[in-house]
Each structure stands twice: as C-alpha cells, then as structure tokens.
Specification:
Blueprint lengths: L1 H154 L2
Length: 157
C-alpha cells in the first residue's frame, strides 16, 4: 500500500503544474475573455431592451399623433361643413331677400299699373259719357227731325 500511496503522491505531484496551469487558465479566461464577453452581452441585452422600449414609446407617440391628427382633421372637416352651411344659408337668405324685394317691386308696379288702368278706364268712361250724350241728342234730333219731315211729307202728296 505504501507503493500505491507513493505512486499516488508521485502522480499528484505531477498533476500540480497541470492543476495550477488549468486554474491560471480559468482565471485568465474568466478575467480577460468571459468577463468582457459577459459584459458585452449584458450591455447588448440592455441596449436591445432599451431600443425595444424606445420603439414602443415612439410607436405610442406616433399613435397619439395619429389620433391628434385625425381629431384635428375631423375638426377642420366639421369647420368646413359649418362654413359651407353658413355660406349656403347666407346665399339663400340673400336670394330670398332679393326675391322679396323683386316681389314687392313687381307688386307695386302692378298696383300702380292697375291704379293707372282704373283711372284711365274711369276717364275713358267719363269721356265716352260726355261724347255719348251729345251724340245721343244729335241722333235723337236727327231721328226725330227726319220722322217729322217724313211724316209731313207723306201727308202731302
């Protein structure tokens, strides 16, 4: 057993440089390779998460701007409709006022014309009356005068 122990001790002593070399390699790799690599991967993960969060924030801001744009567009559209309706109402009111003035003018012209015609009719009736009376007297005198001459002429053969 002493031989086995001596052999094991000898093997252990031979492995000490390998263990030291592997331990040193582990420390060096961890410090100079895996440490910076892990740090870069963590930084990359953080930046990726930050970029994703930033993208979500920008998407939310863009959605908000779209809603604001649509609201402003809708308000502008309603304002345009109100302006158009007001303009149409103004045009209709102007047209109605113009038609009312035209009706009033035409009614006044018609009433003046009717009054003028009534006055002319009255004047014509009066003139006819004044002309008819002497004409009727002349006709009566002529008829009566010729009846007197014709009756006297018959009685005389």
């Amino acid at each position: 057993m002493a031989a086995v122990l001596s052999k094991l001790t000898q093997l252990f002593i031979q492995t000490i440089p390998t263990v030291i070399f592997v331990s040193l390699l582990y420390v060096i790799l961890r410090r100079f390779f895996f440490g910076p690599l892990t740090a870069v991967l963590k930084k990359r993960e953080e930046e990726t998460q930050g970029a994703i969060a930033h993208a979500h924030a920008q998407a939310a801001a863009a959605d908000e701007k779209v809603r604001q744009y649509e609201a402003a567009f809708q308000a502008a559209r309603q304002e345009t409709y109100r302006d158009r309706e007001a303009a149409g109402r103004s045009v209709r009111q102007d047209r109605e006022a113009t038609l009312k003035r035209a009706r009033q003018q035409s009614e006044s012209i018609v009433s003046e014309a009717q009054a003028g015609l009534a006055a002319e009719v009255a004047r014509s009736k009066q003139e006819l009356q004044s002309l008819c009376q002497p004409l009727a007297e002349e006709i009566a005198a002529t008829v009566l005068g010729s009846a007197g001459k014709g009756g006297a002429g018959r009685t005389q053969p």
